[in-house]
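Encode chain A's predicted structure.
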Amino acid sequence: LEKHGWVVRFDWPAWLEESGFDIHSKEVLKEANLETIRKVITAHVRGDRFCEGHLLTMLEDGYFTALLKRIEQITDSCI
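Encoded structure for chain A:
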């Protein structure tokens, strides 16, 4: 994910606190732009370092399917 620009360097804990963005909600992804999606992916990847299995839980919950669908929507609208 880092190699392809989906994980970015920024203060993700501060962003989560300041923005109030619920990174566990599939609903909020429906309006997310690519910058926000990169931040969300970064927060999940970094979070998995503190809570092993977090990414697997999000995958099993369908969160990443919703995330990929949103990316597809955004990129389709750019064509």
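Helices lie at 12-19, 34-50, 54-60, 63-77.
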